[in-house]
Specification:
Structural class: alpha/beta
Order of helices and strands: EEEHEHHEHEEEEEHEHEHE
Number of helices: 7
Bound molecules: zinc ion
Radius of gyration: 16 Å
CATH architecture: 4-Layer Sandwich
Largest sheet: 7 strands, mixed
Amino acid sequence: MLDMNGDISITVVCDNNPCKEGLETAWGFSAFIVGAEKTILFDADGDGSILLGNMEKLAIDPQGVDLVVLSHVHGDHTGGLDGFLEKNSKITVYLLKSFPTKSKDNVQAYGAKTVEVEQSLKICENVYSTGQLGRLIKEQALIVRTERGLVLITGCAHPGIVKIVNAAKDFLKDDILLVMGGFHLEWATRGKVEKVISAFRDAGVRYVGPCHCSGDKARRLFEKHFGENYINVGAGKVIDIADLR
Ligand SMILES: [Zn+2]
Ligand SMILES: [Zn+2]
């Protein structure tokens, strides 16, 4: 048994796919994770006012966040960071070593600490980064270790969603309970998506929650193949890991 701090719960604060009524759904992504040693915001959406507005509607206090982890430098994942730092700068921001110096300096100018991720690493008890993956567009994904397996949350999955899944498995040598976030299959052919689905099967992925840049066609195919283990993710979706069997 792992020494868990409580049940992990993931709330999708921002996504371009709608889920809960009343939330804004512009192009971007941000997820809020509670129940681990630290409270984490993964990605900061593209717009600070949307991020903070959705947080408020979801009764998430920005002051309660300990860490922000940024998957990659693109504006739809980092654009809301300044707005967030204006509300809470007593945090550590896990960004990538490859980020431009000016974005690192900007975070520090608010008084927040930065950690420059390069290799895979432990962020806090039971929470890890895959490390900086990919060549052209570098990206990290967040891994939460639970009693039921690994939960992998991706931003845009530019390095390739299958590559990220395999990197997480290789790193922590555990089964994958859930993969959620952007899978970057918006423009992928049906054949390509089916290859990804079969690679997920090979990797033993139990649940999927594709959103953001996954594309409607891919989401429908994942739903068809995963059936009741497909999670319809959008802004406001709450996933309690204890509910996944
Ligand atoms: Zn991107
Ligand atoms: Zn994106």
